[in-house]
TrEMBL record, chains A, B:
Family recorded in the similarity comment: Belongs to the FAD-binding oxidoreductase/transferase type 4 family.
The keyword Endoplasmic reticulum belongs to this UniProt entry's keyword annotation: no
Known cofactor(s): FAD
Keywords assigned: FAD, Flavoprotein
Source domain of life: Bacteria
PROSITE patterns noted in UniProt: FAD_PCMH
Protein name: FAD-binding oxidoreductase
GO biological process: respiratory electron transport chain
Coiled coil: none
Domain FAD-binding PCMH-type intervals: 34-216
GO MF annotation: an example: catalytic activity
Length: 470, 470
């Protein structure tokens, strides 16, 4: 039998996509930036099937590209264009929530579960899975963990990594690491789960995870605040943190971003007139209903207005107003895509360095691309600002022309972040798109260690070839 | 020059202890359980010196046993009795706090800083390092991270691992991994820091860490609650968690433990008469002063008393009363040591399995050692209960005789924990004492992976030989 027939034997012919039309969606990322040529798409339905597919691919010398909801931004789930013959291994059929234990504040979900479905299952048990980002309605648990997803609530509950109690992983040779234990403390040797989380499928295939849940938020208060600049926003951030209010989101955005949202968004209403240079969207929350959140927020914002940190502020007066603030934030990336072409970055710096980062980058970008328009938006409470350089309005060329004109923008911004003790890859991952940045900016000792680990776990380089490591 | 002279050349003769009397404290753990024979004790003063010592030890074929405050319970910081010729590498002179950044909620501390000094530095900056355990006045940062220390606040802020933003590590070949960045988000390849945290010095020497701080707690309320049993305690735990109160400690202990504390402790006053079979010590906290903590606690305890989950409850009415509750908890281990000899365990199970774990273990221990007395105390909110089997009162033999009589107790308790999806090593680590448990209970695939990683990072097995891996 051919290698593909051997795979079909494991998972059934209808779960091995071989027709070009069926494969096409898996051969390209959703933005159309990355294209590969998988030989087939395997859709196993159980962990045992994943393991057998991985074993047989190994025997046949095929590379394996794990794929989840394929909402990633770095091309990790698409075979590398010049890579070895590979299949895409889609986890979409491993979509069972195996267990929800409310008393234990945990659940066990398979890799192919859509994140929103897991959030829903937690909510039905009176619990909260505290991670939130735009793609959660499509992204899957395996991708969330393989990319160590961030989002707007990282500030309070950490990245996806911090929500994991245990993992089930199919290793590159087909063995299964069954470590789905739901314990909060386990100091028995090396923390293997942390190797697979964020490894983007290059060390194995996450097939299931035990996730930590928290009590639901019974009170939330959101505000939309006009500020004079990033330094004032940082002061406001510190004021709120020091007050002791539980800040669960603190987003900073330049006016340009909100103008794009206002222009291209559907049904978006700005809570304040767009007259200030910068804005903050923030949320404080409490799990206990008797916490006087509104008073906390009014007191902090009152003092911020008095001190000049804030120019104006709108506290959401209803759930609809609150939802609008976060809809603006979530819809922004799509709105920006409908504007002129842009080159994007995903950096993080220490929170205290955010103002210097933004100001330095703004000066450098203006000097080199005076016609460009810098959009800055991000999770300021994590130091994670996404800077983009948009083509001017009325840009006559296409996207490729702007990307060519702005060549070097990403490297410039990355270098500024790294010089401030930051990272060139905060929450989107490396995939294919940032391998060059890994080569340029990553600590060489760290790179050597990573290569050693990759060699120890996947000596033949079968897992997601051409990704992460330069 | 001899290998030791070569080391003295790097750090200065007075920082290389070679006299038997000087070495003696490093040759034995504080409980006197583990003894080794280091050739010398090296006390480098800088990261560069650590690196050079490690390089020269490698060239001379010497093993390296990193040591911090040496408060560990598993013999990790003492050379293995039958191990290769080794030196102890004490980090005690790397004790500078390199940076405190209040705006960033972070600090950078060297490995030899005493944990309490770091807590103090954070407090002086108006911040909290949220980890707390009995040995914090002696334990050092390097040991805290190398053992991934737990303690009574893990419930809210996680283990030591969760507090780390970046690490500086001297690798087994003397290279330095300089990754002290204070970023909250960094998805650029494998999470190397998590390999070194909890590795007990077998993969490298942690020389400094960037740690995450949090806002200080402005309100705390503690209570001492009599409960009918572990099942009721779990219900009380869930009642508090579901109420949304921020639980920062939830300790469960059997009456026997409190009786030992009352008998052997100095200046301990029990908040309630010791008439119930089990007790809970709990604390809720808030960073914001306007959170009505007292009302939250009274409401929850009132309902617990009404439902029968709680038999009696004493809320601390003053800081002195609060301190007393936690002094009882912290002094307990010493009090227990002054009682009859005991064999101890360090297991964790899913929180919801704590009652079944305790009940099953109690039955099994009673059946096999009817004369033994089971002491149970631990971090029930993490599922981490420390069960000990004490010799009967008036035990005529010595410690060794009881250890011999109770042989198999640890294995029995470990097996029960593992059968409930738990861990045989929750927060103390493996060191020398639990290597046999690693061989018996650890997932064999996990063990093979760990050996592969150890081989990739430390192919000659220089780092802390004879520890962690069986």
């Amino acid at each position: 039998m051919s290698p593909l027939d051997l795979l079909a034997e494991v998972i059934g012919p209808k779960n091995l996509l071989r027709d070009a039309d069926d494969i096409a969606p898996y051969a390209m990322d959703w933005r159309g930036t990355w294209r590969g040529q998988p030989l087939a798409v395997a859709r196993p339905g159980t962990t045992a099937e994943v393991a057998e597919v991985v074993r047989r691919c190994g025997a046949a010398g095929l590379g394996i590209v794990p794929a989840g909801g394929r909402t990633g931004l770095c091309g990790a789930a698409v075979p590398a264009g010049n890579g070895p013959p590979s299949i895409v291994l889609s986890l979409e059929r491993l979509n069972r929530i195996r267990q929800v234990d409310a008393r234990d504040f945990s659940l066990v979900a398979e890799a192919g579960c859509v994140v929103q479905a897991v959030q829903q299952a937690a909510a039905e048990a009176g619990r909260l899975l505290p991670i939130q980002w735009g793609a959660q309605g499509t992204a899957q648990v395996g991708g969330m963990l393989s990319t160590n997803a961030g989002g707007i609530r990282t500030l309070r509950w950490g990245n996806a990594r911090e929500l994991v109690l245990g993992l089930e992983v199919v290793l590159p040779d087909g063995r299964v690491l069954d470590d789905l234990r739901r314990v909060r403390k386990d100091n028995s040797g090396y923390a293997l789960r942390h190797l697979f989380i964020g490894a983007e499928g290059t060390l194995g295939v996450i097939t299931a995870a035990a996730l930590r849940l928290v009590p639901p938020l019974r009170r939330v208060e959101s505000a939309f605040v006009a500020v004079p600049g990033p330094e004032a926003a940082l002061s406001l951030y510190n004021r709120l943190m020091e007050s002791g209010a539980e800040l669960v989101a603190f987003e900073l955005c330049a006016r340009l971003c909100l103008e794009m949202a206002a222009r291209h968004g559907v049904g978006l209403r700005m809570p304040l007139p767009l007259e200030a240079p910068w804005y903050v969207m923030l949320e404080i929350a409490a799990a206990h209903p008797s916490v006087p959140l509104r008073e906390m927020l009014e007191e902090a914002l009152g003092a911020a207005l008095e001190s000049g940190e804030a120019l104006d502020a709108a506290i959401a007066e209803s759930e609809a107003q609150r939802a609008m603030i976060w809809k603006i934030r979530e819809d922004y990336p799509d709105c920006a895509r409908r504007d002129t072409p842009a080159v994007n970055t995903d950096t993080a710096v220490p929170v205290s360095a955010v103002p210097e980062f933004v100001n330095t980058a703004e000066r450098a970008l203006k000097a080199r691309w005076p016609e460009g328009r810098m959009a800055a938006i991000g999770h300021a409470g994590d130091g994670n600002i996404h800077l983009s350089l948009h083509a001017p309005e009325g840009w006559p060329g296409d996207r490729a022309a702007w990307v060519e004109r702005a060549a070097g923008m990403e490297a410039l911004v990355n270098a500024i972040a790294v010089s401030l003790g930051g990272s060139f890859s905060a929450e989107h991952g490396i995939g294919q798109s940032k391998r060059h940045a890994m080569a340029t900016h990553k600590n060489p000792v760290a790179l050597e260690l990573m290569r050693g680990i990759k060699g120890a776990l996947d000596p033949e380089g079968r897992m997601n070839p051409g990704k992460v490591l330069p």
